[in-house]
């Protein structure tokens, strides 16, 4: 059933203002959920019926100002100009602009199907979470064009994973996932036609509990064809292995999901996964684009953030090694801290305690004890020979993760030489800005250490943060 209210009649009614304000309020609420601490303000005056500049349709568009540099974004909706200002110290990226356009596309399509004559019904636009449709519109804008009749397979897949996350199988949380075939032909995988009795990949599928055993999301994935049908079950690493001239990803991804990212690198394929951590991951274009955790979607933009980190390190192999290890630790929900100091000599004694410094010759007072005693802070020096003069870029990933998992920080110099591991960093909060004192211990250490060089902090909730020059510059 479709409402067929004439937009012309709507514009003559005083109720039109209330409808417009409602849509604007929803747009603002959802926009700020993706961009917390940002400001969304109306440039023009308050709406008034006598001056009615309001158009009968959203007619959404984002004003593009290349010289602005991402300092703000101007949005026109219902003929009214608004400005979106980022949180202090931040800039809007191309990913952010694409996200704003996705919100505008979904809002426009919903308005169209509520108040315009239409031959098709898109009731699925009002089912599930609005954020799911925004994510789907970001990846596949064509599915949310005004005259598109087919529902979005991506939105259906996300709803399916949301429902699966509420289920258990043999007293265990469900993990699952799907690879959605893109619109382009894939010559690397010649697939047989989908069976005529194939099931639709949707929420109804979650009632078949036995299917959860067939697809765990990490090793195996459901294969969804262009019609939204469950066509097959694939081993994701085997799928990727058949791609000729498979290259290293431009942007690192957690090793557990590298094959998922590689599977989406070409042909428009999209991968959605419900991880054992009950986090929904979405991969497209060879990177993980979004993550749903702690009740909200986050725009990841790992390519842009890796570029910032790589530029700060100025050593591509070192930057990639540390970034990769941080991603793997975050996936394992393991906290850690990486510091790349600009000048090791200036950090010694001020940031790094002499007894933690691997290359420091021990004095008689801080040499390792001849007999190791539990809890002795100097006992750790007895193990320093295992890591002395090592280059972190030459360490195996598992060994670097093991060193990073110790309490304290892993510290290197600009060349990748390991300076300290498990180091409890020194800091004097009295000499630092007042906001440092109210942060957690690891965040405080990261803020202070970033004055000596770039820092990556990994939280046990899976969040990675980059600190440069005494400030946090991004979260991933």
What separation lies between the terminal Cα atoms? 42 Å
CATH topology-level name of the largest domain: YojJ-like (1
Helix share bin: 25-40%
Low-confidence stretches: 1-11, 47-52, 434-438
At CATH level 2, the architecture of the largest domain is 3-Layer(aba) Sandwich
Major pleated sheet: 7 strands, mixed
- Give the beta-strand count: 19
Mean pLDDT over the residues: 81
Fraction of residues in β-strands = 15-25%
Q: What is the CATH C level class of the largest domain, in words?
A: Alpha Beta
**Largest beta sheet: what is the strand line-up?**
9-8-7-10-11-12-13
Structural class: alpha+beta
Shape: globular
Q: How many helices?
A: 13
Tell me the CATH superfamily of the largest domain: DNA integrity scanning protein, DisA, N-terminal domain
Tell me the number of structural domains.
Answer: 3
Question: Overview of this structure, please?
Answer:
The chain is globular, with a radius of gyration of 26 Å. The protein folds into 3 domains: 1-129 and 137-148, no CATH class; 152-299, YojJ-like (1 (3-Layer(aba) Sandwich), CATH 3.40.1700; 302-475, 3-Layer(aba) Sandwich (YojJ-like (1), CATH 3.40.1700. The protein has 476 residues and is an alpha+beta fold. The chain has a 7-stranded mixed sheet with strand order 9-8-7-10-11-12-13. A 6-stranded mixed sheet has the order 16-15-14-17-18-19, with helices on both faces. A 4-stranded antiparallel sheet has the order 1-4-3-2, covered by helices on one side. The chain is built from 13 helices and 19 strands.
